[in-house]
Records
---
Amino acid sequence: MAPPSDIQELIRENHLPPRILLGPGPSLCDPRVLQAMAAPLLGHLDPAYLKLMDHIQELLRYVFRTQNRLTLPISGTGSAAMEAAIANLVEPGDAVLICVNGYFSQRQAEMARRYGGQVREIYRSWGEIFTLEDVTRALDEGPAKIVCLVQAETSTGVLQPVAEIAKLVHRQGGLLIVDAVTSLGGIPLEVDEWELDIVYSCSQKCLGCPPGLGPITFGPRAEAVLHNRRTKVANWYLDMALLEKYWGPERVYHHTAPITMNYALLEGLRIVAEEGIQNRWERHRRNAQLFWDGLSDLGLVCHAPLEYRLPSLTTVRVPEGVDEAAVRRHLLDTYHIEIGGGLGELKGKVWRVGLMGYSSQPENVILLLEALRREIG
Amino acid sequence: MAPPSDIQELIRENHLPPRILLGPGPSLCDPRVLQAMAAPLLGHLDPAYLKLMDHIQELLRYVFRTQNRLTLPISGTGSAAMEAAIANLVEPGDAVLICVNGYFSQRQAEMARRYGGQVREIYRSWGEIFTLEDVTRALDEGPAKIVCLVQAETSTGVLQPVAEIAKLVHRQGGLLIVDAVTSLGGIPLEVDEWELDIVYSCSQKCLGCPPGLGPITFGPRAEAVLHNRRTKVANWYLDMALLEKYWGPERVYHHTAPITMNYALLEGLRIVAEEGIQNRWERHRRNAQLFWDGLSDLGLVCHAPLEYRLPSLTTVRVPEGVDEAAVRRHLLDTYHIEIGGGLGELKGKVWRVGLMGYSSQPENVILLLEALRREIG
């Protein structure tokens, strides 16, 4: 016999369904990360919390592969970190070149326009990369103070090489901003070796933490531009000149830090360091390969060509005659598996499967493959 | 015998000291709120999460005492919510009047200037309120499209009456933005009855949640201004036109919500509703009175006069010859009690004691009084 309706209501209210998160993010969290958030709060100027901030910065430098002094988590999601990069570098009238081949590069362009940038866009279709020649040609037509590139496009599943383009951008006197939202902690990224000027990311993908923080790093060229601005940054909350006084030795109050989110990030970064960053990259690659091989056995086709396919996020073409939304709903309702639908130009055409952070495990791969087999078989 | 040094290092690394948070925020959290964050993640477009968003909005309307449709938590701290209010209302050239009598009204002015507002400031010393006559005089000199007021000034401990000023601002065709960062959930606040146009707050004070979210509400006049802007909001992350499409029935992806922080907020709001908002106001008032009476017995003087003294945050004058920073450090090191120092003009002159949310308990009051007695006795 079912319990009475008021009891049922109480059960429903507090019940969070189980989920195996294999979409474009958030990904699953290690239980250690979730438990870290249950620790009691410290004040944002407590000596014990300030020490913890230092540890976060040190571990962020480890995962970014950088010595950059100005490396910290923005108190907002990855989109806030994207906006921090653009708001702090772009002044009204600045020439900005955006390489648009997906949803998130479109967002960079939208933000750069809002900060008064003279935005020029070059295009590649959603699923292609930009070549060195593409960027050379664009910069030959006119230099750019800032060039924006997405290393790991969450909307297309494409991995964009960035090291050679950074050198090209520097040669004509500009700076490169790189979106590493879907790569940091899961895909090789070498901020110092590749001479990247600003790189930003998020907490909830390959770092395996909940959403809410946006790690960012500014290299020496970017710091110089920051300190030579003619105008104040239009955005107060994301103004790096104010943020660096809180994160630096001065410890000047700016905003009340999201203490608990930073507990989670610290624990997540410790887990990355315990695994070793290169081992983590290799795990992401290995589980992606397992998934790609399985897709091929099922007769399913990846949207991005193998030579620049992103291990952390795979776009799978929806076969002719299949209702992609119905499949996603069924996976969620029956097996508690979340995968993503297509975004922008690829809406309705692909599924987006993330194998990131704690979600990147062989058991999740073979479970999803079997579930897909039953859906479309 | 002490454990070997490598074991000691391990202990230190993971040890968070206990804290009784009686400063200007964050305040302590109910263990239920902390535990809520340990729940596994849902995706930000999961039907179960969307339902939870609806519950948060409904409960926020309950604590704001409003029917405003556009009521939601900003994915950043209280400062981000302040910026959301200003960025969305102020267009370049708009006449903005800021009533400056503390640190956070100065911040409103700084932000309004960054968004191109023609900012006029009127002043009262730190510890006084603005009268109806002050604002009448300022608006007679020239109308303002936007007037900013801080209901509960965290830097001075002053409670500013706002209802009559709202009517005044409306009569000359403007809108009132109210800072309720240190009042929401602890001090009477009647958004609809007082006809306040935009009110923003934070999660970590009287709501008793960790820092990281900024509840905000827009009334009908503010919505109208929002929908008739001539220019795009300069700030993409805080653009209400984009945020309302995610929080509204369209559910259009904007940014990946801080899922876990919203679990905490929902649990915190449920606790507020269980207690009853009026009972909660009364509890804050009662414990403040207990504290004020005890201070008086110790011969200590409150900076703000009784008639407009804030129950949630008390500024206590530092007695002649006492090293205020040494007292704070000693309270923290010996009794694990955090209180705040003075900010801005009151730096070195006052202590700031918060009795907010879960921290507002008689045992905390009598403990702090006894600790203070031992410090200065």
---
Amino acid sequence: MKLTGKLFIGASEVAATEGTMKALNPATNQVIEPEFALGGLAEVDRAALLADDAFDSYSHTSLTERAQFLERIADNLDAVRKELAARASLETGLAEAPLEAEAAKAATQFRQFADVVRKGRFLQLSIDPALPERQPRPRMDHRLQKMAIGPVTIFGASNFPISYSVAGGDTASALASGATVILKAHNAHPGASEIQARAIRNAVRESGLHEGVFSMLRGEGNAIGEALVDHPLVKAVTFTGSEVGGMALYRRAQRRPDPIPVFTEMTSVNPTFILPAAQAARGAAIGDGFAERMLVNVGQACLKPAILISIEGPGFDALRDAMAERVAGAPARTMLTPGIHSAYERGVTRLEGEGACRVAEGGTSQAAFDGQSVLLEVDGQAFLSNAALAEEVFGPAALLVKARNEEELLAIARSLRGQLSATMHLEPGDTALARRLLPLLERRTGRVVVNAFSHPQEVSFASIHGGPFPATSDSRFTSVGMTSIERFLRPISYQGFPDNLLPEALRDANPLEVPRLVDGQ
Amino acid sequence: MKLTGKLFIGASEVAATEGTMKALNPATNQVIEPEFALGGLAEVDRAALLADDAFDSYSHTSLTERAQFLERIADNLDAVRKELAARASLETGLAEAPLEAEAAKAATQFRQFADVVRKGRFLQLSIDPALPERQPRPRMDHRLQKMAIGPVTIFGASNFPISYSVAGGDTASALASGATVILKAHNAHPGASEIQARAIRNAVRESGLHEGVFSMLRGEGNAIGEALVDHPLVKAVTFTGSEVGGMALYRRAQRRPDPIPVFTEMTSVNPTFILPAAQAARGAAIGDGFAERMLVNVGQACLKPAILISIEGPGFDALRDAMAERVAGAPARTMLTPGIHSAYERGVTRLEGEGACRVAEGGTSQAAFDGQSVLLEVDGQAFLSNAALAEEVFGPAALLVKARNEEELLAIARSLRGQLSATMHLEPGDTALARRLLPLLERRTGRVVVNAFSHPQEVSFASIHGGPFPATSDSRFTSVGMTSIERFLRPISYQGFPDNLLPEALRDANPLEVPRLVDGQ
């Protein structure tokens, strides 16, 4: 596929109005062809008007039609998988094999949402039949279903250039909900973004849908993103990235005359607690597993286990040695962007400045944006007295916190801000401590893991990628998994309707055969 | 019951730290005994610490224990129903009989939520079993349930001094979710608030729960409410009232270092569309029914039908005459507070200044805060060219909008902001127009009614009291009905857990016998 570098506004490929840019290969520090168009406020307005214009028809598509559209996207993504992984690798420095797996996962996600759409449970159909004899007054017939909230702005993220970018879970869940999508592409991988956008845009056309169902914009700096958050026709926003970036968008949207929901997924150190019996039984294996996961994607993952909390005692040295050994054996690898690389180096320096000691380091950098793996250590008291040590450093670094005893481990849990996940490694002998630790973790995280690691994330019905602030901006939702669709749905109640005016899913004959609650049962 | 006038902080009755106040009887413009304590920041902090301290135990109560607690509240409310209605009537000028019905409805609501809790569906239990053979990597067991978000601040509203106040739906749904509650009492009905708070507080004690499950505070001006929104231990806020008040709290909460969910229910004119065949067939009956509903609670209701949109033609005169006749026959009645009364008079004057003509008026005021009923009229073009005419006037006034034709009626629908409800009166001959109107209403409202009126609101599973901004601050939720509990719930996922560490509801044996999704089915 030849990259055109254009903006995709509905069916139109639109040339630059605000200059152009080229991608950087961070492995070589060389720019890559071709030029990519940058747009401005006029393009935002045009895409928003189209998305709004498409909303009525797209949000009322039949479940079958919408599911087929999502499956077409999946097929189109599969057809470009190798090409997409190759371009994404050039633009991110990540290896092609995991990027191919990521592309396959992205396609799978669209198929999973097609299944969610077909089954229709997300409509949360609910019927309270009329009770004409009820005293003191009769009840009228009420029927509820969920509908999409309106056009949605989705910000592509930098770190997973497919599964958290143009064809990622946000796009899949928003399109599944019946929302129309304006995608703000991340400038770190414009070519990979175009390949994905084309797959979606072609599926829109092949499905005979309104062209405004999907657009992709790109701009210089923050202006285009801000305009997308401000636009009156945009009704929700999703973002995955830094706390600073996420909060800027969140607060901006809340200052609108009509505030809109913004789901930002921002920061998490995914604290991992090693309970004493588990440490004694298998300290080395846990340490090795932890270090393996912290290095995935060069540590550039929201689910990177960044802080391990252990207690001095049997197995501690084995745990630490295993972590150190794997970190020491890791070569330096290319980070996503020059900015992320320099922020990583500053972050490690900061942790050391706050009193964390370097236990091990990986191979040294061979190129400008290589990130060196680092394992740091601090004792529990120092960690508790310095909140800066609990802040995320994005990249291949982790912090081992050595608590003196169980009480100190619990105090550390109590000191933590909101997290995407928390993990306990435990054996039956740890149950009493786990019962004390668990309520602390429940209040602070969206997912609690036992005897595994925070990474990878399952994409399913019962998995959650969310959590209390600052992990996300709203702990009531998730950005990954089948229930992530709920971010874009709102209920609407039909009271006293004649059957022929009801949405199909709510008619007496239940033609869609979707399960419906009756009086809440 | 003797009123003590104290603040209720957990089990303690706390004396004034920031002066006292007395209630006003708006019918007589006389103050009523006794004195009521006002508190400040110290009381906010004390109540928030208690609510946080109570959270772990209360949010983990068994479903049975929590349901019994809600039923005790209902019983305690029933026991004081007459006394509560009498005091509320004195403080609001509303008649005792409807206030008794309101108290009965409030008790019913606690029993309805007890049933919701017992059935456990709100936990949204979901299990994705382990798939050890899955390729390329096995799936671990994931189990999801909802848990409460944390301590919640609830603002009592002025207009329904029971069902939207201390013992209203916000409190019932928050306590049902497992959240602890700090209630900010409305100063317009401190005695009625105390009677309700005592019923809840006694139920906390009788149920053997942590005293911090419920507190009630009162303060001068906005300071105490602002402190409750700012407090770091408060994790969600609900408010029903004006757009100005609601947005001030909303924006304040969004400026916190950690923004929290705020559900505000603010303003709605509940537009009522009369389609031509219905108007021809029964214009007079519709006009009379509309005017009857607009006068309920002296027009001081979020669901008051405030704007009727009709088309010139057969039945129009009968419709208008019936409205005018009922309005003309309505005596002036006491409004809730001096402030609401003067805002109402200003509002009517404002609508007239914007070009609305007075069609009919009710009996003139006999006392200082009596509100005179008023019916105004404007033509469709004037309405479309002046957005100020679409703004709510809280009180017994309504606006009849006469459209020239169907296109103008549709244009009016398109011009409206978000609403709690919209209504269509129709006959089979109106179906084609209804099909054009309905998508416009779906995008703008939480509930669409056919051949009835926006008031009353059903409290059930499929009814919604919500809608796009500015009806509420988040169209994804409702503040009335059984699904209002969702405002206070967040998901948590348990991955790879041994059975003995799982919450009871998620254990293999399913001891609570609550329905659970397996792989989303």
